[in-house]
Amino acid sequence: MRVHPPVDQNPTAPLPASSASTTAGPGVVPDFAPVPPGRPRRRHMVVGTGHRAGMYVAALTGEHADVGEIVAWCDPNPGRVAYYDEQVGSALGLGGAAGLPRCAPQDLEAVVAEQRVDVVVVTSPDHTHAGLVDRALRAGADVVVEKPLTTDAAGCRRITAAVAETGRDVVMTFNYRYAPRNSTLRQVIASGAVGQVTSVHFEWALDTVHGADYFRRWHRDKANSGGLLVHKSSHHFDLVNWWLDDVPSRVYASGALRFYGDRAAAGRGLVGRPRRGTGAQGDPFALDLRADPRLAALYLDVEHHDGYVRDQDVFAPGVTIEDNLAVLVDYAGGATLTYSLNAHAPWEGYRVTVNGTAGRAELEVVERGFVALDEQGNAVLDPSATPGAVTSDPLRPEGERLTVQAHWDRTREVPIPAGVGGHGGGDAILLKDVFRRDLRLGEDPLARAAGYLDGVRAVAVGIAANQSLLTGRPVLVEDLELGVDLRDGATTATAREAGEVAATHR
Ligand SMILES: NC(=O)c1ccc[n+]([C@@H]2O[C@H](COP(=O)([O-])OP(=O)(O)OC[C@H]3O[C@@H](n4cnc5c(N)ncnc54)[C@H](O)[C@@H]3O)[C@@H](O)[C@H]2O)c1
Where is the composition biased (Low complexity) (predicted)? Predict the structure, then answer.
């Protein structure tokens, strides 16, 4: 089936050849019923008009324009709103900006009411999610929220209280579930091929282009992102929760900032660094915003509105997140996860090993085999755009491999069907579930569609791990009082109290 790959990925993320695919393998894209004639489109407001918002704007002005439309914007930076408003105008053939209503975050409720917004799409920085989700639900809208659901336990309590009290819908966009390789591993585990899962080993390597990007932007401050264990690893912890169909119960973490940041730089004699990447020459850590028209328009050209610098030096002071992390997670069902994240690897990808009573499954993914430098010594984001450039390393070719080996048997390879577009082929399929879920024909046997409870389960690990980093001790997830029982989704007293506290602050 042909699907339109969305504009999705961070420009520093790897662009393996598979991300250019527009034709999914058999069974990868579920079937949906046609839209009933005359059905009104759902009215969406996009909150946070940065890079990620582009995927939703493209979807609602393109493939999913028959089921939804954008009716309002919310962002403190008018320049970024104008960028997307132009895009909507151009998609609608208006010959200029669409002129949609827009507001600053404090006026969200008024615009939800005035514009009769059905769905608020939250694509703002992580630390703002809880407040925005809570307010959108209480203003009468459903919510689609990007990962991570929130960054701390108070945010979980606030969201679970709002869901319980409004009964409204929150969709978590866990796109990695939809990447065919990750879906296939879920199928393998569910089929019983490895027996009862006893342990999982999961290693994620981010390279010095994509990994470095978290140290240039708002993510570098833990108060904004919850650190990589929340911001990035919530994808990975969600995968493990979902693969095992289980919930985390106890977490121990160790880690530190050892490569990026000013102290590490000084220790390695890296002095006299440029303040920002734009204009820096011969620096493999620099990101020149002028090199990408979209980055220039969304950030460089509109800096004067809010002073946000998107290309800060990764070795500049102010980094409070970790770059090397190790986590041990006990699952309620008895399995153990050993997890590690490194954000300055020379290649990017991941390895997962699932041990079970009947054997072992192994998933190996290389998204970028090496970081190429151009003649000036700058990192090349997309070598395939440069004619003649070396794009593959024979010793570490881009690709994916899923194998299963039962006890007393040889290894067999499990075919992974093709996906569509970026994020391992997950984004395009996710968007169908986000915008046309009610038209889906048949159940999803993989249960990929995620809601707020999956969001809480995923950030629970990172929140507990952050506490463990501070105390040096293991943390029981139930002691975090996240406002909901992770096993059955029952709201707990703390969520109700959080709802009352939030109400007194509105
Ligand atoms: N699922 C994925 O693979 C994926 C990929 C990229 C980003 N994301 C998520 O999307 C979100 C946005 O990331 P991004 O890379 O687009 O960041 P970004 O910095 O490019 O965009 C964030 C936008 O939010 C705006 N903003 C700041 N404070 C706000 C507030 N209080 N209310 C409303 N808007 C506010 C900023 O002005 C900016 O326009 C993050 O939560 C991130 O984790 C998910």
Answer: 11-24
- Structural domains present in the chain: 180-214+331-377 (3.40.30)
Residue of 46, 52, 132, 235 with the most ligand 1 atoms within 8 Å of its CB, for mutation: 52
pLDDT band of 43, cuts 50, 70, 90:
very high
C-alpha count within 13 angstroms, C-beta hemisphere, residue 221: 11
User: Which pLDDT tens digit goes with each residue over 131-155?
Assistant: 999 999 999 999 999 999 999 999 9
| This prediction's pTM | 0.94
Distances (CA, A) of 136 to 39, 153, 357: 24, 19, 46
**What is residue 402's three-state secondary structure?**
strand
User: For atom 39 of ligand 1, which residue has the closest CA?
Assistant: 50
Which protein residue's CA is at the shortest distance from atom 34 of ligand 1? 48
Q: Is residue 47 lining ligand 1, measured as CB closer than 6 Å?
A: yes
| Cα 444 to middle of ligand 1, angstroms | 29
Count CB neighbours of 192 within 10 A.
11
> Could you give the CA distance from residue 116 to residue 71 in angstroms, rounded to a whole number?
9
